[in-house]
Structure formats: C-alpha cells, structure tokens
Amino acid sequence: MKKGLKKFLALTTVAVLMVGSLTGCGSKEKSDGSDKVLADNDISVVSREEGSGTRGAFIELFGIEEKNNAGEKIDHTTEEASITNSTSVMMTSVAGDTYAIGYVSLGSLNDTVKAVKIDGVAPSKETIKDGTYKIARPFNIATKGQLSAVAQDFVNYIMSADGQKVIEDNGYISVGEAPAFSGTMPKGKIVVAGSSSVTPVMEKLKEAYLAVNQNANIEIQQSDSTTGMTSAMEGICDIGMASRDLKDSETQGGLKATAIAMDGIAVIVNKSFIVDDLTSAQVKDIFTGKVTNWSEVIK
C-alpha cells in the first residue's frame, strides 16, 4: 500500500476490533495516577468521508479547506487520516483508540467519547446560542419543485412549534418561533435521504409526526449530505438532508434549502485521554498533518 494512502474504517465488527487492538501500540504511556493517560505518542486523526456535510463544515470552520490561486477550494486534511463513513463509526473509532481525535455533530455526541473545549469554550446549546462556541452549522432539508401533500405536511410539522420542540428536546437548536402544527392528515409515502448527522433528529421528527398522522409512511435513508442532495435533485427522494449549506451547483440544480436546526460540531478524543482543551489553530495543525504527536500540544 502506498505511503499516505487513506485508510478506510469499515462498518464491520472486525474493523472495529482491529482499531481497538492497535490502541497504544508502540506508545510511551505515562500515568498521572488516575484513569487518565498522558502521552508522547502519534496522533490518530479520524475524519469523515468526502461528501459528508459534517466534514465539509468542519474543514471550512477550522480553515482546513482553503482556496488556491485559481479560486478552487482545496481540502488539506492529512492523507494519514483514517476515514469513517458515519457518525456512529467515528465515535466507535475514537472510543477504541486512546490517541485518536475526530469530530461529530454535537446533537449526536454520547458518553463513549469526550468533547474538548475549543479556545476555552465547551460545545453546548447555550454557547452556540450566545455565539461563544463558533464551530456551528445549519441542518438543512432540501426539496425540488412541488411536494406531495403528505411530504409538504411533514415539512410543515418540522417547521412548526411542535417540530421545533422535538429538535430542542434532542439537543439541537431551533431556528425560531413558529405556530403550533395544524395538519390535514394526508395519506402517502415520504422518502427522506442524506446526512448521517441529520438522521438521528429526523428519526425523532418522523416518530413524532407519525403519532399525529398515522396515514403517513416515512422511509429514512442514511448516507451523506452530497448523496442526499443528489437524490433530491434526481427525484429519488422527496426530502434531502444536509448538515451543511447547499452548494451553488445544488441550488442551480433546482434545490430549495430550508434550515430546520442549528448544530455544533464537537471535536472528540478518547475518554481516558488527558487533553481537555485545544485551540482552533491546534485543531487545524493536527488535521492538516502539521502536528503529528500529542507532545506537541500537551506541554
């Protein structure tokens, strides 16, 4: 295998076990006497696949994506990064490697990993709302042309006070005040496709909507933001999900974006690891490969 070739972490149990078994290989571990581990060891960078909305927002917000002289956006994520294809695999990968660092939607964060402070600010709904935690992006749904009656009713539910309460109750930030839902209980099937970051809250919205309209049938297809936008443009799904802003090519393709929530991106490390706070510059240096050993950021 060529040096620098990106490693792809498969969804299989075998791959997950391999990640866990490699933890600490060749390490110089030191203990502070607690369950935390200090380290002079190489950083295991874990990123998302190309097409992921979370990756797109992450590299933009941290300046990992930069324009070249021709005005083209270039992603400078290190070629040594392991690549995961979903939020759940990202967290499993970081949880299984003491020296790993990755990133996930704040709304998807669980206690298997640890979210670090960025520039001294912890990621939370409150710090995103007050603007002190700046690593945040919109969750968008995208539609093309006129929706079916049932699909439009579902969108109306999402944007209503009822739907926005579901969003808030599940750790995301609502997009503003809205009237209570008043639906007509239309019948039919809705296909929603795209971002694995948006999928968890969309599942909650589906559950809540079906409780008030049992005539509907909703199928959610999890992939990534780019696939969701392509599916919406091609009519494969009624509603696409993106954890980023839409690209010019997508809006030019007839898609209309509607922001349904705001969400932060949490930078995550292994729970046992000593680091609790990183600067934006350190995160950029780690993910571009400028910094490769934890001793360079842990003094």
UniProtKB/TrEMBL annotation:
Bilayer topology term: Lipid-anchor
Q: What does this protein do?
A: Part of the ABC transporter complex PstSACB involved in phosphate import.
Q: Which UniProt keywords apply?
A: Lipoprotein, Palmitate, Phosphate transport, Signal, Transport
According to the entry, every stretch annotated as the PBP domain falls at: 36-161, 187-296
Coiled-coil spans in chain: none
Q: Give the PANTHER family listed for this entry.
A: PERIPLASMIC PHOSPHATE BINDING COMPONENT OF PHOSPHATE ABC TRANSPORTER, PHOSPHATE-BINDING PROTEIN PSTS
- The protein depicted here goes by the name Phosphate ABC transporter substrate-binding protein
Chief place of localization:
membrane
Q: Which GO terms describe its cellular component?
A: plasma membrane
Q: Which Gene3D superfamilies match?
A: Periplasmic binding protein-like II
Query: Its domain of life?
Result: Bacteria
Q: Where in the cell is it found?
A: Cell membrane
GO BP term (any one): phosphate ion transport
Q: Which family does it belong to?
A: Belongs to the PstS family.
InterPro entries the record matches: PBP_domain, Phosphate_ABC_transporter
Q: Which SUPFAM superfamilies match?
A: Periplasmic binding protein-like II
Query: What quaternary structure, including any partners, is listed in this protein's UniProt entry?
Result: The complex is composed of two ATP-binding proteins (PstB), two transmembrane proteins (PstC and PstA) and a solute-binding protein (PstS).
